[in-house]
Amino acid sequence: KTLSLVPHTGMAIAIDIGDPINVHPKNKQEVGRRLARWAKRDHYGDKDIEVSGPIYESNAVESGRLRVKFTHLGGGLMAKDGELKGFAIAGADKVFRWANAEIDGDTVVVWSDQIAEPRFVRYAWANNPECTLYNGAGLPAVPFRTDEDP
What we know:
Blueprint: H1 2-5, H2 28-42, E1 55-62, E2 65-71, E3 77-79, E4 87-90, E5 97-98, E6 100-104, E7 107-111, E8 120-123, E9 133-135, E10 144-145
Antiparallel strand pairs: 1-2, 2-7, 3-9, 4-5, 4-8, 6-7, 8-10
């Protein structure tokens, strides 16, 4: 949220290169490369460079499933290692269950047989989450949750 409100800021998602025991990632070079993308676009004029992994935009309920839309597609969505993991959904009771997820064009469809009427979705919302959603630029999706008011 802050990223969209504060001018001249960038954010490098490092959740996929972190250490489950230490909050600070050891691979500082990759963090630097990701931050450099923002500088190249915002300060050096490279408007063709993708600066972020997928960022949650909205979701809609479709036949007991949630269709999740993202910005920063960077050439399309992809699942690292072939399978999407890290999604959970809940109904109005806000009791989250791990969910199935698949890429459908420029969206992700999320569902669980345990949730008949999904209302909320989370991605990579854990202490050491499985993060497999990336964009075509090779950047990881930003963790998010929809069960909290802005």
